[in-house]
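Lab meeting, action items carried over

1. Structure of the two-component assembly. Owner: GW. Status: complete.
Input record:
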Amino acid sequence: MDEMTGENININEQLKEASTNALRCMQCGVCSSSCPSGRHTSLNIRKLVKIAGRSSDILKSDELWMCTTCYNCQERCPRGIDIVDTILKIRSISAYHNIILPEHRAVCQMLLKYGHAVPINDDYKIKRTEMGLEELPETVHKYTDSLNEVKELLTSCGFERFTEDNTDENKTMENTA
Amino acid sequence: MRGLSLFLGCLVPNRYPGIELATKLCLAKMDIDCSDLPGASCCPAPGVFRSFDKTSWLTLASRNIVLSEELERDVLTICNGCFSTLADANHIIQDDEKAKEKVNIHLLKIGRQVKGNIDVRHIIEYLYQEYGPEKISSFVERPLDVRIAVHYGCHLIKPTKDRGLGNSERPVFFDELITALGATSVDYPDKMACCGAGGGMRSAMKERSLKMTEAKLAKIQEAGVDCIVNSCPFCHMQLDSGQDDIKELTGTEFEIPVLHYTQLLGLALGFPAEMLGIDTSIEKNRKLMELLDSQLES
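Predicted assembly:
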């Protein structure tokens, strides 16, 4: 826990480092007008770019997760800002500090358990065989050794932190952010 | 040219096995050297896992790449998301020696090492660049006189600096692969717009993601097409089963058939719909097949 607290103190530094590119922004709004999500959700990518690196409030913002990573904004930005890449870095800081949507945590649990984000189920096993395919595809689903390799790698990378809901860490975040 | 290994990912084998079968049938009929890639996992998905942690994303992607390196084959993807993850990861491994060293520390624990000596391909750019529309036409046994809304999806072509497939505003290569089969690619507003599924939106904010899908489907419907053709099972799912979700949420019915390019190619190569996983028990798909059958008779 001590280590986590130390990390939390550095949140602002981490955000700053992730967002240096965004300092070039002149708030022209090409990003927002190119954003397919922004037309239908509350995502205002221009505003996100503006606060990126300036405030840890961005980690509490639902809009951080409304980007489909379509790259329109990044392609069209006249200042050449890596907008989507910056969003991804900020999401990682968020996830690392245990601010992660429950549905996304569930997807992480799937990956760790099955090696697939979307694993097979009985209905599709039947569908496969009816089509003349093998019941299980040539993936980790068919080879236990391969699945174990995936699990070992994920453990080696410390991936379990994204599958376990550590509410204590959430509390620490509440106090510092 | 190196041979290929087929990277299945998650959605194709586990939700759309028809796309897996269609791909295998087409590759075999065109005599393209492509093997299985036994033991591969999730790519892992760029929208979610790359968002959370770059290290585990890159390490797992590198394992999938190593499996193909060990076969001395290039990776063939049939999903924009898998292409995005594996092509980006491969570039990092090839260009960033330090990142490669770090990944190999993890991979050593499972007795593997990534080298960075193969390429990652997507079936659309592979067919376009290695065969081209004319040569694809020469394989066609059953020209398909249908009107098609092409959906490129985002990660096939963007970020353009990494993909190298040209400008993302008005690309034509996918359309040319459609016309090569005798079909018409119908232009429609917001053709290059996202389906709405990516970036973890579909998994965590489904209703909001479907608003993007509904807007896109409405434009496609106005254009008057016989079906949508995509290059990605995640876009496929959003545009296909998304129609059912939208009907439930808003009552709006679209009834537009959705095919992956390999399924359309399979039809043009003469395979029957049932062999390609095109569910003809669904009204919208049955209409499309009846249209094609009437052309065959005339």
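2. GW to write a short summary for the group page. Key points so far: The mean pLDDT of chain B is 96. The two ends of chain B are 41 Å apart (CA to CA).
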